[in-house]
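Section 5.1 Outputs to date
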Amino acid sequence: MFHMYTLLIGAYLLLVSASVYPTQPVQATVWSADQPMLVSWIEDWKYPVLSEMGPLDISLWCDTDTYLVQLASDVDPTTKTRQVTVPGWVLKQRSK
């Protein structure tokens, strides 16, 4: 079974604003490939607030600077949650 370690939690949400604060996954969370997982966030009330933001992209990054894959696009920030799946091919490609 392949596992993905979430090393940089904030990198799941590709943000241009500080009004989104990721709450799940937390650091050291282990995700299994090809299994649905939950990403969630809360409002931190800095401008712009969630209701004034445009759609979010949720991406998976390794370390602080290695883009792996986009997990979701055009996510309404006011939903504060999104189920995503890390495709198994990402792990296979990273292990080469």
